[in-house]
Design goal:
The protein is mainly alpha-helical. It contains 17 helices and six strands. It folds into four domains: 85 residues, no CATH class; 93 residues, no CATH class; 58 residues, no CATH class; 89 residues, no CATH class.
Length: 385
């Protein structure tokens, strides 16, 4: 019997990791990149490594999280120490003291603490939001719950006051009516009486109906795959029958997508899902931004497929030119633009406005666009997949 000897493949060459940053360098980069506002925990900035001179991903949010033990004692009442120069740099950031105070407040939860327990919050909520402004002509007109349940100053049992964010509290309580299907998720604990009192509020049925509808739509976004949505874009926004190019989707465009009927908990049967291509594009735009955080991630092949559509390059050029223009008008440093804001707080309704988040702190990735762009962004080179 003959045996074939196969050579063991050589290990792939890997790029040497950059030297670890010491605390001084981390603080220097944090202060340089985050002058305007506190960074999000998952934010990544591509910067030159101070030791190797190579580009690397710096995580200012994670660095900030590591600094907690340097500015507050832990559960064992132990605290790491910063030297005077490090303290001066950090506290020169206008948001740093508020950030530290926020953590300290969150730790002091209880009847006599700065932060009330959940049961007390619910009692205050029942008193403050027994009536809320509702849109006329319900159920036709939609209630903007962020406004209807806007923050109010509530009286606490200990005699103090507390700024109660009604919308946030109801979002936190939502699992009482829509429990998580993940067995690892700890169920929310609240007395039955409090839950029944909430359900008796005059506006609760409308809030519950809206919540049901949002969850049906969210479910359908998962049923209709990313690939199906991309195919719809190519099918409806490529060329006309006479070969002339079509325009990009408008915010009023809706494409009905038939699907298997889904029955929600209030008995509504949904047989057609309304695909809004402009909203989908808004989730895609940061795929062309280095270190961007797109709502829907595309492969290089999918990016190239979209770039073949006649309007895509002009659309990207308009988006990023608009971002740069607003950054200059605001006089905001590129590293501290709307990239720190959650998507729910970004500008609306246009794709140019809502996708401001990452562009001014990152480079756009598109060589074909860069070669045609007369005034490329000053932050980096535009390259395409």
């Amino acid at each position: 019997m003959t045996h074939t000897v196969v050579a063991t493949p050589a290990p792939a060459k890997t790029r040497a990791s950059a030297p670890r940053l010491d605390l001084d360098k981390k603080i220097d980069l944090l202060c340089a990149l985050c002058q305007i506002q506190k960074p999000e925990h998952r934010r990544i900035d591509r910067v030159l490594h101070p030791f190797s001179g190579q580009m690397f991903g710096f995580h200012p949010g994670k660095v900030l999280n590591c600094l907690i033990d340097y500015v507050l004692p832990n559960a064992q009442n132990q605290q790491k120490q910063l030297n005077l120069e490090q303290q001066a740099k950090l506290y020169s950031l206008h948001w740093f003291s508020d950030w530290r105070q926020g953590i300290l407040t969150a730790r002091s939860t209880g009847p006599n603490g700065a932060e009330p327990l959940l049961d007390e919050k619910v009692m205050m909520f029942l008193n403050e939001y027994r009536t809320v402004p509702m849109a006329a002509g319900l159920p036709r007109r939609k209630v903007v719950w962020t406004k209807a349940l806007a923050p109010r100053t509530a009286q606490r049992k200990n005699g103090g006051t507390y700024e109660l964010h009604g919308f946030r509290l109801m979002e936190k309580l939502a699992p009482l009516w829509w429990p998580s299907k993940d067995p690892k998720t700890k169920p929310l604990q609240l007395g039955d009486t409090a839950k029944q009192d909430l359900e008796k509020l005059h506006w609760f049925p409308q809030w519950h109906r809206d919540g049901e509808q949002r969850r049906v739509v969210a479910h359908m976004r998962k049923v209709v795959t990313k690939e199906q949505k991309l195919d719809l874009l190519v099918q409806h926004y490529n060329l006309n029958l006479d070969g002339t190019p079509r325009s990009k989707p408008s915010w009023n465009d809706i494409i009905p997508v038939p699907h298997t009927a889904v029955r929600d908990s209030i008995g509504t049967v949904v047989s057609v899902w309304e695909f809004k291509p402009a909203t989908f594009l808004d989730d895609l735009v940061d795929n062309w931004v280095v270190s961007g955080r797109p709502g829907v991630t595309l492969t290089d092949k999918q990016k190239r497929m979209l770039e073949e559509l006649p309007w895509v390059k002009d659309w990207l050029r308009a988006v990023f030119t608009g971002r740069e223009r607003r950054r200059v008008l605001r006089g905001v440093d590129s590293s501290d633009s709307e990239s720190d804001l959650p998507s729910s707080k970004r500008s609306k309704p246009s794709s140019t406005d809502r996708s401001v988040a990452s562009a001014s702190s990152s480079s756009v990735s598109s060589p074909s666009i860069a070669s045609e762009w007369s005034n490329p962004p000053t932050e980096g080179v535009v390259t395409c997949a």
